[in-house]
Amino acid sequence: MTDITGMPWTDNYLLGHAPMDDTHREFVEVVDAMLSCADEDFAQKLRAFIVHAEKHFADEKAWMEASDFPATSCHVDDHDAVLGSALEVEPHVLGGNVAIGRMFAAELARWFPGHADYLDSALAHWLVKQKSGGKPVVLRRNVTLPD
User: Fold this and answer.
1) Helix axes 42-67, 72-94, angle to 10 degrees
2) 18-132: which CATH number, 3.40.50.2300, 2.40.30.110, 1.20.120.50, 1.20.1260.10?
3) C-alpha angle 45/48/51, rounded to 5°?
4) Residues 75-100: pLDDT tens digits?
5) pTM of the entire structure?
């Protein structure tokens, strides 16, 4: 498994629903902070992630419920698993096992792009279509295309 030492923002994460895109920028910032901080700061950064995730996931759940999003259950289950893992890892980090916290943060960096590409993009499309009748328009800068 490759060590991940940071999670920079990329416009590849943009989905075209501004409130979600703003929340995702914050998600990337808090995960990046966990991946790049000193060991003595890790517990504080993990706690900041948990606070962020609670609000982030609650906001998305509220959008899903308010709009009758068809895949709400699957999406909420994915969020619940991530938050549950964070809450399981926290006592270990507080007990001095920062390595398990760093492994968790690296898994978040691996998990997020797929979650955003599939579950969150479907939600963004749904929300924009409900509001405006069309698909979101996403303008991305500095996109690296696959070979």
Assistant:
1) 170
2) 1.20.120.50
3) 155
4) 999 999 999 999 999 999 999 999 99
5) 0.87
